[in-house]
Structures are given as structure tokens and as C-alpha cells.
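sorry for the late reply, my laptop died twice this morning and i had to redo everyting from scratch. anyway the thing you sent over, i finally got around to it. pasting the sequence first so we're on the same page, its 332 residues, then the predicted structure underneath. double check i copied it right bc i was rushing
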Amino acid sequence: MRNEVAASHPNVESIGGYELLGWLQTCIKDVLQDQLSESAIRIKSLVDNLKSANEVIDENTFSRIDAELKNLSLTHVNNLLVNIFGMFVASDSEQVLRKNISEIAPLVWVYSSDQVKYKIGTLIDGYRTNLHQTKLERGIEFLKLVDGLMYESLPAKIIALEHLSDQLKETHEGWDNFHYEPAVMREILQYCKSSTDIPKEVLPKLTKIVLRCRIGNGVNYKRGVSPGGVPLYDQFLCLLDDEGAACCINALFQPEINSKIRNKICQVHLRNVLESLKLIVISDRLKDGIDLLLDDLPRAYLAGARRDFQELTSPFIEWPRQQASRSARRGS
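ok and here's the structure:
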């Protein structure tokens, strides 16, 4: 009724009396007289108790809630997730309510569908667009609680990862970088759980700075790499697909990294990186290119100028010779 003939949606439709009576009958029969299912009653009771609670719920209660969630239908769990998200971001929500939701939300999130998770990401993006700053901050906090930042909308994810890439670069070049790098990398990994979570717009920049941190500074102290950062960098590199692996290989021949891989300590780390990439790539040409680098690691920094290496990787990396050839064709 609202979409077809409501005054808020002007159109040429009209509604007759008999049609209106038919809709009224449907409302009475299928909505007003509908009996709530047992699951719906339990969810309503849970929501009501959350709203009225004056203290933090104990561990035994959370365990019972977890057991109940396993038995609920997907539709009901999805509705519950949207409900508690709305209560969490509301500007008038009290601290005890938000604390209880912060404990329950990860349990509900696990049993919910991706569709409703992306819906929450879209809602948060709406807060950003409409300048609802409090709701935006609490929405992002909610996603962090449930480890769901990868469900942010694509534009928001690109902006966040662009910022975090710059932050990681500044941290790597700053004072006491070994201590501060892991915290930034952990935040990056909250957005990236698989290769599809990494936007193509930020992939080259992000892989380059992660690779730079993983190869290190070439100093003797801690072998030039943050000990706490190593497993995080390796976790990210193992997420990459062929395109991401190609970005890593291409980054090796850019000045900031190419100057480092002449260092023997950095070459040890480079070997670990290349062996990890070789395990995940699908393309035989990329594998052969990685083998070529591994076979002569001390001279790997020169491989970018070798014709055979360029030919192997040309489907994935546009080398200067290809760029010059393309420009010449355009000029003709």
C-alpha cells in the first residue's frame, strides 16, 4: 500500500474500497492474529531483558544464550542481530546495555548470514554520509567487537585501508617502529580476512608497504624486522591471490625495496616471502618467475631488467618496455 498508493509516493495509482477491505483482511489474519513462534517469543524476551538489565550479565547467562542461538532459525538470528545493533548505536543507549550487547554480539554474529552483515555495513556507511557521528563511531566499534570490519562498504574500506597503509609506512619509518608496527598491522587484518576483502584500488600500495616491513631494514638488531609483526605480515601475504602476489613482485623493483634486497639480512627475509608466495599462486608463469628469483637471490634485485623475467611476468606486471611500446603505438 505504501509503495503503490501512499501520499508520500505520488503516482497515478488509485485504490478502491473493496481492494482496501481485502488488504485490511490480510492485515488482521496474517499480522494481528498471527501467533508468535516459540523462537520469536524467546528473542523478544531476550531483547526486553537486555533493555531492562541494571547490571552486567554473568558468564552462565551468556553460555545459555549461546546454546539457545544454535537452535534459532536464521531469520530470527538475523533479526536479533539488527535489533541489538540498533540498540548499541542509539544515542540514548546506556553503558550497561552496550556492555551486555558487546558480550552477546559476537555470539549472534557467528550464527547470522552474510547478507545481514553487509546490511549493517551499509547502515554504518549511511551514518557516515549523513554525518551521524555518534552512530558512526559506535557502529564501527560494533564491527570491531564482532571482528566484522571486512563488511564495511567498499568506499569506506578503501578509505580506511588507504589511511592504515600511510600509518604503517609512517610507523615503519618512525622511532621504535618494531614496537608500534604490529598494532597497525592488526587493524589492517581486521579488514582483510581473504583476498576478496582487499580492494583492488588499494592493493598495490598496501602490499608494497607490508612487503617493505616484512623484508625489514637490514640491521642486525632483531634481524631488521619487528618480531611481533612477522606473523602478522606473513598472515597478510598468505591471503593474496595471483594479482596480489604480482604486486609484491613488482614492488621488489621499486627504489624503496630494491635498495634493501641487496642486503644479505633482507635476502633471508625475501626468501621466506617468495617461498610463501609460491605456495599460494596458481599461475605457472608466476611460479617460474619466483623460482628465477630464488635461484639467484643475491642478484634478485637485478631481475627486473632481465628480458626472460619480464616475459615470464608480463601478463601480470607492465614493465617500462611495455609502457614505452604502448605509448609509441598511441603516438602513431
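The mean pLDDT is 89.
thats about all i looked at so far, will dig more tmrw
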